[in-house]
Amino acid sequence: MSDDLNHLKSLMDDANPKPDAARRAANLSQAQSNFATLQQSRIATESSLWQRLVVGMQSGVGKGAVTASVVLVAAGLFFAAPPEPSQLNAPLATATKIGQSAQEGLVAEFAAPAPMMEADDASVASRTTALHDRSAAPLTSYERVRAALMQEVFPSKDDVRIAEMVDAFTYDSESAKTDENFAAAISRFGQLLHSPQALGRSGYDDVIALAQANLGSDPSGERAEAVMLMQLARDLSQ
Amino acid sequence: MRMTTSDEDLAEAAAAGDGAAFASLLDRHYDRLFAFCFRLTGSRADAEDLTQDICAVLPAKLASYQRRAKVTTWLYRVAVNAAHDRRRKRATYAKATTGWGDWEIQRTAENDDTAEKLDWLTVAMRQLPIDLRDTLALVLDEMTHAQAGDVLGVSEGTISWRMSEAKKALRVIKEQEAKT
């Protein structure tokens, strides 16, 4: 590595922050619960397919006479020495077909190879999110925070996404410093919603003062509204 | 006992449905993943959100893990893709932020000495195109050019070329600084 790169690396190493312990724990537990939910839905899908397979066989060939081994042997024979279509009785063909489509379905749903670009990331995220009782509507983090506070409850920590909250505002004040300070106020607001102890005793009062002092011209009133939400959160926290 | 199990064994067990293996794997890699997210985004808040995104999709992503890949390579690939998604999403509603560093670095750097160092890092990273930033984030994380190529889905040669572009760009930034 060249000197420039070494320099950059040491700066980067110095700058590297430690992950927030509370969010670390929350993220790990969310991942584990998503994992468990996915496993459950996978087992449920597998067993319902199996039931369909067995029911299909039973109704065609004779109730109670079919076991798993019969299905496997039948499928094995079918693949080893495919009989003429005319030799096949209908239920066996159906069973084999169900077996195949069941397997294909599972492969498509759970083992879809996605080695690189994954356009489905968003849909996977939203599907997993939906499994967790969160609104499927595409609300931004700030909108969810607002909706919760307007109902006088704290937003769930999963909904508090600091960078997204900061992004929810427009920054075109005459003074860049005003924008920067307002963004900082929103960021601290997010931190407070995450872990009320994070900013010490003064907490909300400081954040509210910082936001109020940096409203700028606020043509849409969005900053004033944010201050109102901060006040609601402060009142809730008392 | 889990500590002595290899990453790859844990990932394979997790892909087969072992929840404890999944938890153990994620716990083992979380801090490094977070640090990588910081290198990709340059902002603590973004790194926190990005790590959260990754944790949410990781269970579903396990299906794409293949034994022949190193777990870190796979994990970083998921991270790079999640970062791309985030940038795309942000582009739709965030005009004020430029990516690396943003407002946060300056704000958190309260003492002047750190501020100066961070300024240089921020200036340098911001001036690089996203491809070069991603490449640097990987190489500065001790990845070889071949491993970085694996993560980004490009050849080793492309990584080497990008690194030489990044070095050139850094030199130019330094020279400009020396003049002012």
Structural class of chain B: mainly alpha
Q: What's the SSE pattern of chain A?
A: HHHHHHHHHH
Number of strands of chain B: 0
Mean pLDDT of chain B: 81
What is the oligomer described by this structure? heterodimer
Beta-strand residue fraction of chain A: under 5%
Tally the helices of chain A: what do you get?
Answer: 10
Return residue spans of chain B where pLDDT drops below 50 for at least 5 consecutive residues.
93-97, 103-111
Number of helices of chain B: 9
> Which stretches of chain A are poorly predicted, pLDDT < 50 over at least 5 residues?
61-136
Terminus-to-terminus distance of chain B = 57 Å
Please describe what this structure looks like.
- The complex is a heterodimer of chains A (238) and B (180).
- Chain A has 238 residues and is mainly α.
- Chain A is built from ten helices and no strands.
- Chain A has helices at residues 3-15, 21-61, 68-80, 90-110, 121-130, 141-150, 162-167, 176-194, 203-212, 222-237.
- Chain A is extended and about 70 Å long.
- Residues 61-136 of chain A have low confidence and may be disordered.
- Chain B has helices at residues 7-15, 19-41, 44-61, 71-93, 102-108, 112-127, 130-139, 145-152, 156-179.
- Chain B is an all-alpha fold and 180 residues long.
- In chain B, helix 2 (19-41) packs across helix 4 (71-93) and helix 3 (44-61) crosses helix 4.
- The radius of gyration of chain B is 18 Å and the shape is elongated.
- Chain B contains nine helices and no strands.
- Mean pLDDT of chain B is 81; it is low at 93-97 and 103-111.
- Classes of the chains: A mainly alpha (238), B mainly alpha (180).
- Chains A and B meet through helix 1, helix 2, helix 5, helix 7 and helix 8 of A and helix 2, helix 3, helix 4, helix 5 and helix 6 of B.
